[in-house]
Amino acid sequence: MDWFTAIEFLLIIYLVVQLLRLLIADCDLQLQWAEKFGKSTGVLARKVVWVTGASSGIGEHLAYELAKAGSRLVLTARREKELQMVKKQCLSYGNMMDADVLVLPIDLLNFELHKPAVEEVIARFGQIDVLVNNAGRGQRAAWERTDLQVDRDMLEINVLSVLSLTKAALPHMLARGEGHIVNMSSVAGKIGAPLSGSYTGAKHALQGWFDCLRIEMFPKIHVTNLCPGPVFSNLLKDALTEKKGEVCNTEMKKDDRRMSTARCAQLCAIAMANKLDEVWISQHPVLLVVYCSQYMPTIFSWIFKRVGVKSAMKMREGR
């Protein structure tokens, strides 16, 4: 066997192994590797981690994962009562004291509160190590029927509020010479999600803005974009529709093929611990679709247009 044949054989073996890894994965292969062989979430111990949207869903369960890791937490959302309940649960994990968890209820759409909020966190803990921009809203409506004001609202909620809070915290991180910005994006930030044009556009914008920040601020500031697929949460209940002021008020079905919120949060924490740039968190077939869109964009586009909106929506909703 000559060298070229040997290399060809090894390459085939490598590709087969990677394919098998992908078929059993519920996240991208980089994150799968980090979970097995990378840094544990223990590296986040005593780090000051600020989680927005922490009163429910992925943000709530991410707070629990960080509490187990020993992080000092800042919990932000609009609903103080729910935040206090999350804090109580966080304190039940590990050797945390009451002073290790700050409940900071604010409406992130009130941009004037962002700088004072940053100052309050620094006054309490002296630093901000990680900012997790998790707060956001979903949307379900046909592109052509969606009011322009809904488009504006989605950008305000899912993009501009994130930029504003990050810009408020960034000078402190730069002064310290280090910091980590984590954004809750979506697979909709990678591929178009039919009947969610405003949401998809907002997540694409979020990805682009922070991809630029990652390059401009490296190596002082690390940026991680988390891209989950279908996950059990209250996203549909509060999702906007085609008209301003309306919400879907829809509950997810128990038999949907969605990832559990706890598992998603666990993978998010691992991505944070390893400071990965971008991760995809989803079960199949959505995970495979994201891979195809990334590495075979022309073929993917041709197929996806012909799959049809109904089939695409079923896959997106885990059905």
UniProtKB/TrEMBL annotation:
PROSITE patterns: ADH_SHORT (PS00061). InterPro entries: NAD(P)-bd_dom_sf (IPR036291), Sc_DH/Rdtase_CS (IPR020904), SDR_fam (IPR002347), SDR_family_member_7 (IPR053011). Pfam families: adh_short. GO terms for molecular function: oxidoreductase activity. The keyword Oxidoreductase applies. The keyword Ion transport does not apply. Keywords: Oxidoreductase. Gene3D superfamilies: NAD(P)-binding Rossmann-like Domain. Belongs to the short-chain dehydrogenases/reductases (SDR) family. This is Dehydrogenase/reductase SDR family member 7. It comes from Dreissena polymorpha (Zebra mussel).
